[in-house]
Amino acid sequence: MNISYDENNIFAKILRSEIPCNKILENEHTLAFSDINPQAPIHVLVIPKNSYINFYDFTKNASIDEVKFFWKLVNDVIDHLKFEYKGFRLITNSGKDGNQDVPHFHVHVLGGKNLGRMIN
Ligand code: AMP
Known about the structure:
alpha+beta, HIT family, subunit A, 5 strands, about 20% strand, globular, binds adenosine monophosphate
């Protein structure tokens, strides 16, 4: 099944500066900002600046540079938050079974307390 990218999703609007975000860090291909409805004391979202629907689309179709810059920014966010020793969790939801709400690829960076078991 081929799903097309929805240009009106909320993260596309953030990338076009149509709605604001609380920016944490960015690089040439990637943006990190605070989640508006945090699920942990610290909850950051990392998104590519180009249009990819989910993890599969991104890893299938993004350039090597985009992939490299993406994971570099995730690493920079971990440094920025001083999560290296305390620990953290990365999550990426995909599609219907993954309960993905916003159809623009993103990784959640969660931490700031012990997050418990992964799936309750
Ligand atoms: P997901 O369910 O993995 O697609 O996660 C989407 C995330 O986007 C949720 O954690 C929302 O709280 C977050 N979110 C939705 N709108 C905004 C926004 N305008 N700014 C920041 N985060 C948002």
